[in-house]
Amino acid sequence: MKLKxxxxxxxxxxxxERLLARAGDSRSLKPEFVSARIRTTVDKYLxxxxxxxxxxxxxxxxDGLQADDLCLIMACEAGDEDAWSELxxxxxxxxxxxxxxxxxxxxxxxDLAQSIWAELYGLRTxxxxxxxxxxxxxxxxxxxxxxxxxxxxxxAVDVHxxxxxxxxxxxxxDLERWASDASATGxxxxxxxxxxxPEQSLANREAGGAVQEALVRAIEELTPExxxxxxxxxxxxxxxxxxxxxxxxxxxTASRRLARVHSELKRRVATILVEQRGWTKAETERTFxxxxxxxxxxxxxxxxxxxxxxxxxxxxx
Length: 317
Known about the structure:
By secondary structure, this protein is an all-alpha fold. Helix content is 64%, strand content 1%.
């Protein structure tokens, strides 16, 4: 039975209490301030995809949020200068490392890192005293270090393209841009098999559209680090060594992580098609074999009938 809004609100309030209790430092944040953020996150990442999520699912989701990171960011957002100093001190190395990996030289990397901190701090103050920067976009769903690397990578791409606006770190913007870019270049989905049967061609297009929609949703549900890896490797064309450097991991680790992401995406796409599209498992496996899902030319292995775990992620020549 679908939960009432009042029941969801109660679960959020209870979850907020648990989150603040398990945080090493709750930073004197007002519970209602935190609850509002958690409610937005639950609506966006859970209820938007599963409107009938039960109480247990909501509790599990909220209890999976990064309590310490979220409290730190929200304290910064609320204008706590001590929290801001701690944020810069703890994550300066992370930001500099990501900036170096995304820049041509040390000077450009330093400029990029400084731009990131300015963007996060915000250029103006809200009436309530909080800063109007990108801090409000951190949901606590993934690690703060991974989110910061994503912010750096996206700003680097924006600077490289000499665009005037900053690309937001929030995944909705990413997915819309990725899907648009990939569709325009024919990289994301190629569902029209050559066929002399018009009805079959139409069926292929409809099936391909369903798989593409499920794939975009599955990518959206990845952790920030995994989503960034997919973006850097398949959409931005970085090598595993370069993508690993942005993420702060060795090339071999990035390769293993990519193989795991392939498996997770296949499993999640199949679940969406079966549970929400009403497909049978046989239809799903058959479509995986017939539809070319290729974020680049070789990602078809991600969704073919053979379990992806048996495949090796693409390695450098």
